[in-house]
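re: ur question from earlier - yeah i can do the single chain one, its not a big deal. heres the input i used so u can compare w yours
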Amino acid sequence: MPIRVAYLGPKGTYAEQAALALTQLEKLEKPEYIPCSGMLSVIKSVSNKSCDFAVVPIENSIEGGVTTSLDALWGHPELFIKRALVLPIRHSLLSSGEIHQISEVLSHPQALAQCSSWLNQNLPNALQLPTSSTAEAVRMVVGSQFRAAIAANTERNLKVLNELAFPINDVPGNRTRFVLLQSEEVEQQGNLTSLAFSLHSNVPGALLNVLSCIAKLGLNMSRIESRPSKRELGEYVFFIDVELHKNQKLTDKILLKNLEPLCEHLVHFGSYPSTDINVT
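and the output i got, formated as tokens:
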């Protein structure tokens, strides 16, 4: 049976690029890529084991955490991160028409936000319409003279649309971190460990105790984000990434042992390597 890898479809998304790169880094033989509609369906496909792996975005350097991914991970604590990949995001404006004809711009909400200044300056009167993915935006504007899509200038996209402008993202260093998820825990080592936790109660010092625990171990916390618990107002779930020492496996176990008494629920998504890649 081929190894099945789910990602946010349709074909042509940045998630597909990340899926291709992650499977190459993991040296997975002859993977079959499964485009899914919506982030929840991507994660459910690996949770119910209809796919062996899933690729989802976790955070963007401009827009921050991808909330649908974070919420879905908290709801599926049985999943583990196999590897992470930081992918540069360079957006193009694609259309069948000319730039002076464009009255509507379509893309994923994060892509629209990442190009908001460029759009306000160059297409101030164009209506901005959100789509489920950048690839879906491409599909919806093919053949239209007045619509344009914000998407990657991949060979597939440039076969059906013309590139009107590139790059159009407001910040040149725009990057998104994707993770490769699996439903089976594997003993492995990496330079990062990812955790999510809720606190016993919302009292002074509760979060500080967790952060102090990490600091006392001499570990650097490279990311922290909060999401509503959805149980009551003012109650949050926290997602953190911690950089590990050379003795990674031992450090990870000590960290978990020290954090458990401080947390109501503690989810460990595993230790894994993270890779930055460059694209031209």
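The chain has three domains: 4-88+174-182, 92-165, 192-273. not sure if urs matches, ping me
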